[in-house]
Specification:
- With 753 residues, this protein is mainly alpha-helical.
- 59% of the residues lie in helices and 0% in strands.
- The longest helix has 27 residues.
- The chain is globular.
């Protein structure tokens, strides 16, 4: 007997996957993109619940990778320009996600330096996705109440904390928006729907590469809803899905153009040199131990599993073999039930597993083993399977079952909502989030390093040094903790300890000749730049450890404070040479040369700093004042105008910007270049880092109170997100109850009986 909880064969009069043909000249509702008369109250309740679950993150500052994607990429701080983002050239250390950068640029235009604007956009995306998922489940022919509860499960699930709360991880939510929109359009089964689905597919890939699995999901859903009766129809369906190769090819071509001429360094591979079988065994075990609990209850999964967080499985690992066999059995059973029985639940399971394929390390290799953010798209399949299960559960009528069923579903959703709110509140406190991550993945050196940076931003140097030591135990000889430990030593004047920390770099990289250093042997001075040069040859780890140039810059500052100007200049020059990304050595070198009366070399150093960080206002100010003082009024004025544009939103530069503005635009219209030249004293002093955020979160301790240091941004209300949660949570609960009362338990006659 066919299962009443799932769609029946086409010959059964009890089920028609799509509404019947219209009678007479009425409108053809079967061609509508969205289901007829969707419950506005249900959609509003879903959006409100999704927002209330994660609104505590609204208080969160820029942290994790937020400082990198928001501040270091100047494209996100310019006026939104989609064409420029699509075609502009990029560096090797950047990804190609132009639509994500476009949304970041829009957020920046709405509220520069205000993380609440960025967080609010993340919450809006998640709310939209929850609503679109409800409409998609209705399109599958599932009942309104089952569809609503499954979409509510997706909306309040705590596993979405990273995507909903981390600004740098909104790619998953944006890709899911286009994924759902393309899915709904494809099920419209018309030329217009197919065209919209193709456009949405391209937008999804331009948001996140993982959305490339959409054509396979469409094929599976069509096999359930409208199974072709013959071979010709199957080929026609395959041809429709094959059309998605066209937008995929366009996106690949755009990416190639954007990285034209770029030589990509070898990326870290979590399974470097590991056979494919070991990869499969490790990922199968990781799925059952981490992804599965995360999908079910939102626990046991954090934001980063970089090496050596999880040890590789071996061919002798019986548990890994059992996990691999279990996954193979689930895949086989799901495909059998999908194509033979047209099971919606099996379709959801297959789509869930399909969503993990791009991040499985089996097809594409990358540096991470897994992350919480990788579950956002697979949770669409989980919601589809859950809706099918709830539909079957609602059709079982027994005495006393209705109350027990309502109590079970309500308790589950309420528990998930509370866990989601707790997770979002942790994301508003970087230190708490990092410590919670470490409780699950204590060997994760990346998390420990970021915790050390947060502590540095709060000037808790001893605790930060301890975290870097713990990181060094996890990855002996790793560059980043050694650099940070050396920086802390230099901060307190312990030059010998700093030298020993830098000497711990790989000795196979040390050049064989002292002459290669270019400034003597340095044997008598443990802290001389020559000793550092021997350990850090030009180009060594320049791209992967931007802190290298900043370490040289701090050494130069230490020499300046001691009056050893020649050694300070040598340190700055070597910082410029060995680190092509750091701007501090060039800026501080220019300041040193300018103070010494060497104008031309100083101007060249400032130009180099501008080339490295065009959005850094300090270098523009220094060069502009220098040029105005030397009579190059036109170029100097251009640099100062650029400084004024870039200094907006920087309270630390407000006084200098006001003074420069008065000189450039006097009330009587008589500008004086010489007066500006005399005002060179307003130029910023040498700094160990630019006042703005560093090019990488793994770069240096940040100034306390900076929006990206994890200590909180000034000007935000106390616990605004928690206050909103206290207001929105009861409203969301009431809206959900009203929506459930307004939705019928079963579907209309044209939907599964």
């Amino acid at each position: 007997m066919p299962d009443p909880g799932f769609p029946q064969p086409r010959s059964s009069p009890a089920f028609s996957p799509s509404p019947p043909a219209p009678v007479g000249n009425g409108p053809d509702h079967s061609r509508a993109l969205l289901p007829r008369r969707p419950s506005v109250l249900a959609c509003a309740a879903l959006a409100l619940a999704a927002t209330a679950a994660f609104v505590p993150a609204l208080d969160g500052p820029f942290f994790w990778d937020d400082a990198y994607v928001v501040f270091e990429r100047e494209r996100t701080r310019q006026a939104p320009d989609l064409l420029n983002l699509l075609f502009c050239h990029r560096d090797a250390n950047e990804g190609y996600r132009p639509l994500v950068e476009y949304t970041l640029a829009v957020n920046w235009a709405l509220g520069p330096d205000d993380p609440r604007v960025f967080h609010a956009f993340n919450l809006l995306l998640h709310a939209l996705n929850s609503t679109l998922l409800f409409l998609l489940l209705r399109r599958f022919g599932l009942g309104p109440r089952a569809s609503f509860l499954a979409a509510l499960l997706f909306a309040v699930h705590p596993v979405h904390a990273e995507v909903a709360c981390a600004i740098s991880q909104r790619a998953g939510a944006l890709a899911a928006f286009w994924y759902l929109l393309g899915w709904l359009a494809f099920l419209r089964r018309g030329a217009a729907g197919l065209g919209l689905a193709l456009v949405a597919y391209a937008c999804g890939i331009l948001s996140w590469e993982g959305s490339a699995t959409l054509p396979a999901a469409l094929f599976l859903s069509e096999a359930v809803l409208h199974p072709p009766p013959g071979r010709r129809e199957w080929l026609r369906l395959a041809g429709r899905c094959a059309l998605f190769v066209l937008p995929l090819a366009v996106c690949i071509a755009l990416r190639r153009h954007s990285f034209e001429g770029v030589v990509f360094p070898e990326r870290l591979d979590y399974f470097e040199g590991v056979p494919w079988l070991v990869r499969a065994l490790t990922m199968a075990r990781f799925f059952l131990e981490h992804y599965l609990p995360g999908l079910v209850a939102g626990v046991g999964l954090v934001s980063d599993y970089s090496a050596p967080a999880i040890p590789n499985s071996t061919p002798g690992d019986a548990w890994a073999w059992a996990a691999l066999a279990a996954l193979a059995a689930v895949v086989g059973h799901a495909l059998h039930a999908l194509f033979r029985k047209r099971s919606v639940a099996a379709c959801g399971v297959a789509i869930c597993l399909l969503g993990f394929l791009p991040v499985s390390n089996l097809l594409v290799r990358f540096y991470g083993l897994g992350a919480q953010r990788y579950t956002y798209l697979p949770m669409l399949g989980v919601a589809l399977a859950a809706a099918a299960g709830l539909e079957r559960l609602f059709r079982v009528e027994r005495a006393g079952l209705a109350r027990a069923r309502a109590a079970l579903v309500g308790a589950t959703l309420l528990t998930l909502f509370v866990l989601a709110a707790v997770s979002a509140a942790r994301w508003a406190d970087p230190e708490a989030e990092y410590r919670w991550m470490l409780s699950d993945a204590p060997m994760n050196h990346s998390i420990r390093h970021n915790l050390g940076l947060v502590l540095c931003g709060q000037e808790r140097w001893a605790e930060a040094y301890h975290e870097f030591e713990e990181e060094l135990e996890a990855v002996p000889g790793h560059a980043m903790p050694l650099v940070m430990m050396a920086r802390i030593h230099l901060l307190f004047g312990r030059k010998d300890e700093a030298r020993r920390a830098l000497e711990a770099f790989g000795h196979e990289e040390i050049p064989g000749s002292v002459a290669a250093a270019g400034a003597g042997d340095g044997a008598g001075d443990a802290a001389s730049p020559v000793t550092y040069r021997l350990k850090l040859p030009p180009g060594y780890l320049g791209a992967s450890v931007p802190a290298l140039g900043r370490t040289w810059s701090e050494l130069g500052l230490a020499y300046e404070r001691e009056g050893r100007m020649e050694e300070a200049e040598s340190a700055y020059r070597h910082g410029v040479q060995c680190d092509p990304y750091a701007v501090e050595p060039a800026q501080n070198l220019g300041t040193l040369l300018r103070n010494g009366g060497r104008i031309e070399p100083a101007a060249a150093a400032f130009r180099e700093a501008i080339a490295r960080a065009p959005r850094l206002p300090e270098s523009r100010l220094s060069l502009g004042l220098l040029l105005m003082g030397q009579g190059a009024a036109e170029e100097g004025r251009q640099q100062l105008e650029a400084f004024l544009a870039l200094a907006r939103g920087r309270p630390d530069l407000a006084a200098v910007a006001e003074k420069v503005d008065r000189k450039l635009h006097p009330a009587d219209g008589a500008g004086t270049g010489t007066a500006l030249g005399a005002a060179a004293g307003t130029a910023p002093p040498p700094t160990s880092a630019p006042a703005g955020p560093p090019p990488s979160q793994l770069a240096q301790p940040l100034a306390p109170g900076h929006p990206s240091d994890g200590s909180g941004a000034p000007g935000h209300g106390p616990a605004l997100g928690l206050k909103l949660c206290a207001i929105l949570a009861p409203l969301a609960f009431l809206a959900v109850l009203l929506a459930l009362r307004s939705l019928p338990t079963t579907a209309p006659a044209t939907l599964p009986a």
